[in-house]
Design brief:
With 101 residues, this protein is mainly α. It is 60% helix and 10% strand. The protein starts with 8 loop residues before the first helix and ends in an 8-residue tail after the last strand.
C-alpha cells in the first residue's frame, strides 16, 4: 500500500484489501480463543497460568511482535471469564522456578 499514489483510487482499493485481511485475522483469533478456553476448561479441573508481566515483555525488541501477535493477555482474560462461568478454577502462579533448562 505504501507504493501506491497518495490520493489515488488504487490506494483506496489497496487500503480496503489490507483492512479486509486484518479483519479476517482478527475474526479468526476471536473465534479461536473461546473455543480453546472451553476445551481447556472441559479437560482440566484446575488451570494454572504463569503471572507474567506481559506489558513489560512486549517492550523488548526480541519478543514484542510475537507477544502482541498471540495476544496472551486476551487469552488469559477469556480463560478466567469462561472458567468463572463454568465453575472451574484458574490460578496465577509466580513464574520464578517454572522454567527449565
Amino acid at each position: 500500500m505504501s507504493r501506491k499514489a497518495r490520493d489515488g483510487a488504487i490506494r483506496k482499493k489497496a487500503r480496503r484489501r489490507v483492512a479486509r485481511l486484518h479483519a479476517k485475522v482478527r475474526n479468526t483469533r476471536s473465534n479461536h480463543r473461546p473455543k480453546l478456553c472451553l476445551s481447556l476448561i472441559g479437560r482440566y479441573g484446575l488451570i494454572a497460568v504463569e503471572s507474567l508481566n506481559i506489558q513489560g515483555m512486549a517492550r523488548t525488541r526480541r519478543l514484542s511482535r510475537a507477544i502482541s501477535d498471540v495476544a496472551w493477555g486476551g487469552l488469559v482474560a477469556t480463560l478466567k471469564h469462561k472458567a468463572e462461568s463454568a465453575g472451574t478454577g484458574v490460578v496465577e502462579v509466580n513464574p520464578a522456578g517454572t522454567s527449565q533448562n
